[in-house]
Every structure is written in C-alpha cells, then in structure tokens.
From TrEMBL:
This is Uridine-cytidine kinase 1. The gene is Contig2312.g2494. Residues 31-60 are annotated as: Disordered. Residues 31-40 have a biased composition (Basic and acidic residues). GO terms for molecular function: ATP binding; kinase activity. PANTHER family: URIDINE KINASE.
C-alpha cells in the first residue's frame, strides 16, 4: 500500500513537471514569435523609408526634366533667384556643386549707323531665352568727367551756366574723334566681360552721349549663357576679339550710313547743324572708318550686307538685309546653347 502511494506521488510530481515544462515551452515560443514580428516590423519600416527617399529623388528628377523640357534655364538671371550668388553655372540650384560654363559671346561690328542694333534686335526677337546685350558706347572715356567720383564734373557744372556747358560740348563734338580706338575704355570693358564669363555680376557704366560724362548711377548686369556685344570698334582690340565666339560684321555703303545717321539724329532732336555734321563726317567719321573699322572686317566669321532701308516709310530700322544670314547666326547661337544644356544635364545626372 505504501509503495502504491509513493508511485502515485511520483506520478503527480512528474505530471506537475510536465505542466511546468509545457508552460515554459509555450512562453518561449511566444517570445520567439514576438521577436520575429518585431524583426519583420523593423524591415518593413526600413523598406518604407527607402521607398520614401526614392520617391523624393524621383520627384526631384522629374521636376528637373520638366523644367528642361519647358526651356527653363535657372542660370539665366531672374529677380526670383538669389542675386548674391553666381548664376552662370551648370549643375542646378538644388545643392549640386556648380561648375562654371563659359557663355557664348557674339560680337556685332560695323561702321557708325550701319545697322548693328537693328540686327541685334532681329536676332534677339528669334531667341527663346533673351541674351545680355552690351553696347560699346557705354564704354567711351568720359571726356567731361566721371560723376561717380567726387570733385568731378558734377561740381564743375554747378559753377557753369548752360551756355558754357554747351560750348564745351560743341568743342568736343567738333574736334574729338569718337571713331578712334583710343576713345574707348578697353580695360573696363574687358574686365566686365571677364567677370561675366566667371559667372559674376558686373556694374556696367552708363555714358551720357550728350553731356560726354559717365553717369553717377551704374546698371548691374548678371551672367547669361549668351552675351551680345555690339560696337563699331570691337574688332580693333585683339584681347577683346579673343573672347568672342562668333564675329559678325555689318557691311553698309557710306551713303546709307550717312543717311541713317541724319535720320537718327533728326528723330532724337540732336541734329542742330547739318553743316557741322557733314564736316565731321568728311574730316573724322569717314577717314576713321576707312582706317580702323573697314579693315577689321577681315576678322569677321560672317559678313552681312545692309542694302539700306525702305524709302517709302523712311524707317531706318526696316533695313534690307539677307535674312538667311541672320538665320545662320541664330542657328549658331542655338546650337551653342543646346551644347551648353547637354553639358548641364550630364553634370546633374
């Protein structure tokens, strides 16, 4: 009997141990399942985060491609762009390290009143992105002073009456040769172009053609992928010509240039004495053209003949030039801009 009781007791203890073992195994299995679930949740979160990053990158790339497809160029100056940084760079404005891209510089030369500005406007009207235009006239040496400097003509003119000022101006116009390369501030012009090529803004001077002074205020110009420089003497300076990518010369007969000059001055109200104009033309303008400007056309890549203007309207801007030549210039410019755009996209991606 006692033996039977002992056996029963041992069986009960074994049963209890079995229950404990079963509970322990169940608890371990539960912990294992919880660990696996936590690991799966961690992997899922990682995948979701990675997908979110990929989505942001995809949206960014899509935005860039959309801007390029619309012809948007963030490197052209815009008032909405932060003006404190250099803008003429390939790369984008989203944090990619910028690399400088040399702008395409188009030089348009020709004699006085040959139609340089008119051809420039014809080219600009055909371009999708408007270029930066510089005129050599703004870089004349200020014979009567630089108003940006103190104790200059600004104080001098206050002591002179209008008659004295006008006599000074008349003497300059009568005797000074504005068609001589020595009349240009080449150092300032080249320095300004170099800044623009480097992607930096430039304070362009403003020249008062009547008073023969450099104005106190300047015009701040910003880098552009295309710069058009027009002027009658731009092919007479070798350092400047080395910076030009395409050189165009407007060839116009002497009588057409003289007629355009008379009409232009009449419209401006600056033609006070036709006799003085003709005298200056014969003594200075024509000889300077033959000595400096006409010989420089040999450096031109393209020569465009200007056959005059329509006498019916007497509109000097309605000039008779072969449009295929103008279209050739536009094609050259657009090809260069497309090439720059390709380099930008390669840098972005």
């Amino acid at each position: 009997m006692e033996t039977l009781l002992n056996i029963t007791k041992q069986l009960q203890e074994l049963a209890g141990d079995e229950n404990k073992l079963r509970l322990l195994m169940e608890e371990q299995e539960k912990l294992k399942q919880e660990e696996q679930k936590a690991k799966q949740d961690t992997n899922l979160n990682s995948i979701e985060e990675e997908s979110e990053e990929q989505k942001l990158q995809k949206d960014k790339n899509h935005k860039i491609l959309k801007q390029q497809a619309q012809g948007f160029d963030p490197h052209f100056y815009s008032p909405q762009v932060h003006v404190g940084r250099s803008l003429n760079f390939h790369g984008d404005l989203f944090g990619i390290n910028p690399q400088p891209v040399k702008p395409f510089i188009l030089g348009i030369c020709g004699g006085p009143s040959s139609g340089k500005s008119t051809v420039t406007n014809m080219i600009k009207s055909k371009l999708k992105n408007q270029p930066l235009t510089l005129n050599l006239m703004d870089f004349y040496l200020p014979l009567r002073g630089n108003l940006r400097r103190r104790n200059s003509t600004d104080s001098k003119d206050k002591e002179l009456d209008e008659a004295q000022i006008q006599r000074e101006i008349n003497e300059i116009e009568r005797h000074y040769d504005f068609d001589n390369p020595s009349a240009i501030d080449w150092d300032l012009l080249i320095k300004g172009l170099q800044l623009l090529v480097e992607g930096k803004p430039f304070n362009k001077p403003k020249y008062d053609e009547h008073l023969k002074v450099r104005e106190e205020k300047t015009e701040r110009v910003y880098p552009s992928n295309l710069i058009i420089l027009e002027g009658h003497l731009i092919f007479t300076n070798q350092q400047l010509m080395d910076m030009l990518d395409l050189k165009v010369f407007i060839e116009t007969d002497d009588d057409v240039r003289l007629s355009r000059r008379v009409l232009k001055m009449s419209k401006k109200g600056t033609l006070t004495n036709l006799q003085d104009l003709l005298y200056k033309y014969e003594k200075q303008i024509k000889p300077a053209y033959e000595k400096w400007i006409e010989p420089s056309k040999k450096y031109a890549d393209i020569i465009i003949p200007n056959y005059g203007f329509r006498l019916e309207s007497m509109d000097i801007d309605d000039i008779l030039v072969p449009f295929p030549a103008v279209e050739l210039i536009i094609k050259q410019v657009e090809t260069q801009q497309h090439s720059n755009g390709q380099r930008k996209r390669q840098n972005i991606f």
